[in-house]
């Protein structure tokens, strides 16, 4: 269904008309406000009168233009997200400019003008049409998720190495503080298993990050949204968020490809999708990891992967790394790390590892203690292993409670 409210609101703002001016003699300001916010079923005759006064069009024209332009619009956004050539689509969009201005995609049209044919990673300040970006800034609050994202990506480029942000310094700092507090709350929800709540909260947090042009917060939110989408088994959504994350790469000090490969690989490994896990985690092998907790998480996933694949040389390399790391830790952490190392060794060497009593005890210990030492996410990683142990031990009551508390 065409979003009449969005079209009317954007055009009213661009024409600098008040609600009272636009609805005078047609309907009450309250009715127009409801139309703009899509909150009520309004008589089509009223909508037609508003459209006629605003743009000299009617519902049929707006719907026809919107539906006809939808395929090109979606394809352009897909290519923009993947940083692919868009010149052929840009030519079509320019030909259809009049119809775009009389469709739901009016804001999208201005976004395309800003990006044009530029390589996403090599846009700089001189490439940006200041007049267009200022025009969009008046109505961007009505944009959808993608329009908001790409507009704010340009703001990041525009403000890079400048002091423009100082104009709204207090507002930005306050917004950033609120945004980070919300982000950490959502991150905690995610690691505690409240995935839906974390996802919804992070979407709101991401919008705030975009409004304040806070690239680090955008990065954190996009990563968390991608992981939430994976947990919710929405792979298309996760791909969308990770592609947006890649678009931030030129402005970040992090190796974003490393972050994405690790998180996707770890998630696939947890789901026992070994081939996909290998696809992502293999990219992390070239690195030589110093002894640290953050390195341990990567080494652990690589060791676990090659143990599953029975690639003995690689698996032993990472298991030995963990053993050496154990000696550098205090007793609380080292005990857990030793259990992890031992369980991998048994799994690697023994075909019937599930029947090994020490393996069973190690897995149960890891599951029971990893949340307090590391995180809920690390504990959840071992859930499938514990399920296997309980099944082989015929501990159906514990298995029932395990499922019940998931």
Explain this structure to me?
By secondary structure, the chain is mainly α. Helix content is 72%, strand content 0%. The chain folds into 3 domains: 4-162, no CATH class; 163-253, Tetratricopeptide repeat domain (Serine Threonine Protein Phosphatase 5, Tetratricopeptide repeat, Alpha Horseshoe); 255-406. It is elongated. The relative contact order is 0.05. Pfam families: HTH_3 (PF01381).
Please outline what is shown here.
This protein has 406 residues and is an all-alpha fold.
SSE string: HHHHHHHHHHHHHHHHHHHHHHH
Low-confidence stretches: 161-173
State the share of residues found in helices, binned by percent.
over 70%
The total count of strands amounts to: 0
- Count of alpha and pi helical runs: 23
- Major beta sheet, specifics? none
How many structural domains are formed by the residues?
3
- Compute the gyration radius: what is it? 27 Å
Cα distance, first to last residue? Answer: 38 Å
Q: What portion of the residues fall into strands of 2 or more residues?
A: under 5%
- Give the integer mean of the pLDDT values: 82
Dominant shape? elongated
What structural class should be given to the helix and strand makeup?
Answer: mainly alpha
InterPro entries: Cro/C1-type_HTH (IPR001387), Lambda_DNA-bd_dom_sf (IPR010982), TPR-like_helical_dom_sf (IPR011990)
GO molecular function: DNA binding
Organism: Holdemanella biformis
Domain HTH cro/C1-type: 15-62
């Amino acid at each position: 269904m065409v979003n009449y409210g969005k079209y009317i609101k954007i055009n009213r703002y661009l024409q600098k008309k008040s609600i009272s001016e636009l609805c005078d003699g047609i309907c009450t300001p309250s009715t127009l406000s409801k139309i703009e916010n899509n909150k009520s079923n309004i008589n089509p005759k009223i909508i037609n009168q508003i459209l006629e006064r605003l743009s000299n069009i009617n519902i049929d024209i707006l719907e026809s233009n919107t539906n006809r332009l939808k395929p090109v619009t979606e394809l352009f956004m897909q290519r923009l997200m993947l940083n692919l050539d868009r010149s052929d689509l840009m030519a079509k969009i320019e030909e259809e400019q009049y119809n775009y201005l009389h469709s739901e995609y009016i804001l999208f049209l201005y976004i395309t003008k800003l990006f044009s044919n530029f390589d996403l990673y090599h846009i700089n300040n001189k490439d940006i049409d200041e007049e267009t970006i200022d025009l969009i800034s008046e109505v961007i609050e009505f944009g959808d998720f993608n329009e908001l994202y790409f507009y704010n990506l340009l703001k990041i480029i525009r403000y890079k190495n400048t002091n423009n942000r100082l104009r709204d310094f207090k507002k930005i700092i306050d917004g950033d503080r609120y945004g980070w507090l919300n982000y950490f709350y959502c991150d905690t929800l995610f690691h505690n298993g409240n995935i839906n709540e974390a996802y919804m909260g992070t979407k709101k947090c991401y919008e705030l990050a975009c409004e304040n042009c806070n690239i680090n917060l955008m990065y954190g939110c996009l990563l968390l949204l991608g992981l939430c989408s994976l947990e919710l088994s929405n792979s298309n959504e996760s791909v969308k968020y990770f592609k947006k994350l890649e678009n931030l790469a030129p402005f970040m000090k992090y190796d974003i490809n490393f972050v994405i490969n690790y998180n996707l690989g770890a998630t696939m490994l947890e789901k026992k999708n070994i081939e996909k896990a290998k696809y992502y985690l293999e990219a992390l092998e070239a690195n030589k990891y110093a002894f640290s907790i953050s390195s341990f998480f990567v080494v652990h996933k690589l060791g676990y992967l090659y143990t599953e694949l029975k690639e003995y040389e690689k698996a032993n390399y990472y298991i030995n790394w963990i053993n050496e790391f154990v000696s550098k830790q205090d007793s609380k952490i080292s005990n857990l790390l030793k259990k992890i190392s031992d369980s991998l060794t048994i799994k690697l060497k023994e075909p019937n590892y599930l029947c090994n009593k020490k393996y069973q005890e190690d897995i149960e210990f890891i599951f029971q203690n990893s949340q307090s030492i590391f995180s809920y996410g690390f504990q959840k990683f071992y859930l499938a292993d514990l399920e296997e142990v309980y099944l082989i031990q015929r501990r159906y009551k514990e298995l029932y409670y395990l499922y019940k508390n998931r």
